[in-house]
Amino acid sequence: MTSKGRGDEPEEDTGPLSIFDRDEHGDEDGDGPAEEAAAQGAGEAPRRRRRLRRLLAWTLAVLLVLFGGAFGAVLWAADHYASSVRRIPDAFPTLPASEQPSAVPHSGQTFLLVGLDARSDGPTTGKDAGAPAWRAGAQRSDTMMLMHISADRKSVSLVSLPRDTWVPVPGHGKAKINAAYSWGGPALMVRTVQDLTGIRIDHVAVIDWSGFRALTDAVGGVDITIPRTIEAKGDAREWLAGTHHMDGAEALLYVRERHGLPNGDLDRTKRQQNFLRSLMIKTMSSGTLSSPSKLTGLLGTIGDVASVDDRLSNGDLYDLAWSLRDVRPDGVHFMNAPFGGFDTVDGQDVVLLDDGAAGVLWNAVRTDRMDAYLAEHRTSTGTLGTDVD
Questions:
Q1: Cα of 185 vs its chain's centroid, Å
Q2: Contact 265, 50 (CB under 8 A)
Q3: In which band, very low, low, confident or very high, does the pLDDT at 19 lie, cut at 50, 70 and 90?
Q4: Which among 209, 243, 191, 207 has a CA at the least distance from the CA of 388?
Q5: Contact of 164 with 265, CB cutoff 8 Å
Q6: Which of 16, 58, 63, 148 has CA 20 to 30 A from 180's CA?
Q7: pLDDT higher for 353 or 143?
Q8: What are the residues whose beta carbons fall under 8 Å from the beta carbon of 160, sequence distance 6 or more?
Q9: Low-confidence winner among 7-21, 49-63, 144-158, 335-349 (lowest mean pLDDT)
Q10: Mean pLDDT, the chain, as a whole number?
Q11: Average pLDDT for residues 134-141, to the nearest whole number?
Q12: Is 125:186 a contact under the CB 8 Å cutoff?
């Protein structure tokens, strides 16, 4: 004897259930007392709703997998390219903290950027480096800039120290600042700059001229405007007035030349800043810093040609670059260290700093007050303009 009810008809096999299968009455499969009383045709609507919920659930799951996979791929690429950036060991002085400038909390970060005049047939920085970034007497720092990134990541200030600046080099007496790298590598360079400025250096980035040339070519060249024709003088070439699209080889001539310029090494640092400004504008205008995929490509390009200190982790590199995505060209400021005159010491042509004015600048960098400093000293800072020989 059989009873009538649900057992008279086979149940629909609905498969595994989830919270997506609940109907508006709270029943998980929709087969409660109300459905038993309904006609067979009326039961079609709940089944359609169940199928729709399952479809939505699976679609959501697929989208999560796809987007999660894409995000994971970006993170993997970022870590991969950041890992390709060559690290420099022992880039900082091994002095007690009491003998170094104190780090000021919440004051941004300061990098020492160094361009090397390496006496090597092959690269000394980047992934293809066949020689070390420093070997005693083999390299001098041809370019030095302090790059201060504000704590709020809205502005960047770059201050050039001319290579002929006459300074005390620890353990060697007074000398041109570029000799510090030759004598003691990055660590002595950092110590010399810290002693001179009282600014704690957070990180170091180094590139040689081979890397500079390769980096310029990798970004497709840079447009530089020369405001007036500069005649050839000695080994210096002629530069015609107008905008030049420079590849790596021509850009290298542009930033290294000083003998044909009115103020020698000072004008040379302005050319270096002018090039770097054009490179930054090109990078910013292409949306590289605001695109995770483009940013990983930029890290790869930099990793091919530059080296950084081994305190700068992969995550630090990516986070720093990503944090600068809102910086605009007018938030990047270039200037020379305050100039105190030219002199000749022991037969060497040297550049002197204005110690009083320099002290004010160093304090502004140290305390992350560069915006206020620039507003107050704009006419006397030597800030880079648009008219660069």
A1: 23
A2: no
A3: very low
A4: 243
A5: yes
A6: 148
A7: 353
A8: 143, 144, 145, 269, 270, 272, 273, 334, 335, 336, 337
A9: 7-21
A10: 77
A11: 56
A12: no
Per-residue pLDDT tens for 255-291?
888 777 878 888 888 988 888 888 888 776 666 666 7
At 75 the pLDDT is 45
The tokens for 7 are: 């057992």
pTM of this prediction exceeds 0.85: no
Q: Is 370 helix (H, G, I), strand (E, B) or coil?
A: helix
CB atoms within 10 A of CB 351: 25
Summarize the confidence of residues 70-89 as an average pLDDT. Answer: 59
Record the tokens describing residue 384, joined without a space: 């880079």
Q: Which amino acid is at 71?
A: F
Torsion of CA 70, 73, 79, 84, to 10 degrees: -130
First to last CA, the chain: 107
Distances (CA, A) of 71 to 66, 75, 115, 291: 9, 6, 35, 12
Beta strands in the chain (DSSP E): 86-88, 109-118, 139-149, 156-160, 166-169, 173-176, 203-208, 222-226, 242-246, 306-309, 332-336, 339-345, 348-353
